[in-house]
Structures are given as C-alpha cells and as structure tokens.
Amino acid sequence: MTPLLLASQSAIRLTLLRNAGLTVEAHPARIDEEALRMALQAEHATPRDIADALAEAKALKLAQRHPMALVLGCDQVLALGPRIFAKPESRDEARRQLADLCGHTHQLLSALVLYDKCEPIWRHVGVARLTMRQATPTYLDAYLDRTWPEVSHSVGAYQLESEGIRLFSAIEGDYFTILGLPLVPLLNYLSLRGMIPS
Length: 198
Known about the structure:
Mean pLDDT: 95
CATH class: Alpha Beta
Shape: globular
Distance between the termini: 11 Å
Order of helices and strands: EHEHHEEHEEHEHH
CATH topology: Maf protein
CATH architecture: Alpha-Beta Complex
Low-confidence stretches: none
C-alpha cells in the first residue's frame, strides 16, 4: 500500500482516511489561503475553481517538500450564489453567516488534488447542496451558546456531525463531501491505480 501525505491540518480528514484503512500522515501545507482566495475572487473565478486551486496549492507545496511522495491536497468552499464564505473568525461573524444562510440553499464544494512525484495525477470536486431552514435570532444565539468555539473551525459555523444537523431542512450530496473529503472517488482512483489493494 502506497503511503499518503495529507496536506491538511484537518483531524476529520485524517480520521476518515485512516478509518478507510489508508496509511497516511498529515503535514500542514501552510499556504496563504486568504490571499489566494481573494486573488481568485478578484479574477471572478467560480467557487468550484477556487476550491480546486486551493487544494492544488496545498498539494503542490507539500509535494515540493516531499518530491517522491504521494500527496493529497484538500479544500472546501461554501458558496451562496456567487458569495464565498470562509471560516468565521469571531462569534459575531458566525452569527452573521448563519443568519445569511437561513432559508437558503448553499453549496459545499470539496476539492481533492493528488500529486505523485511532484506531478498532479488526479483531481475531483464533490458538490453537496444544503438547505438551511429558517431560524429565529433567539435560536441562533442559543445554538452558538452551545457550540461556540467548536464551530469556528467550520465554514458556515455548523457541523453536521453534531448539533448543526438541526439547522437543515434538506441535504443533497455525499456525506463525505460535506465533511470535506469526497472519499469514495478517491478510494476508487487509488484502487484502480493499484495504490491500495482491491
């Protein structure tokens, strides 16, 4: 089985990969995500292209440090129409994000880019559509009382794997994509390439 380097600090992504039986180590890529995202938005890049470019930048950065390794870069973008959301930096920002998302359907775009020996060999962008129900200001405040600061690590200030699931009226898409790692397409590719037993 080919060892995999994950260009991410995400504990959830690392756990998902290990639970799937992969040999993986996490190494943060340390790119300036905000600057790259802002530059891409200034060029009117689509949310899909932004997610893909951020995942590639992370994979490339780590691949340059480990040129013989198999490296996986990941990124997730939340898009409400043309608007891109980032992780909330404060409770007030989380409250604004939740209020903006209530009553609307947004997209989570989870991008994967795989590098082998410093060359990109595979990429995928999974898309999920989530409809957040209307919620009263009182409910949103109480929700943040219970979940802050844990939700500060999640774009949109919710976590479906915990109480955040109560915010939604409809969800279309793969659960792994929502968690930020479209696992099934990745495992299929690794299996077809003989990088994991099948």
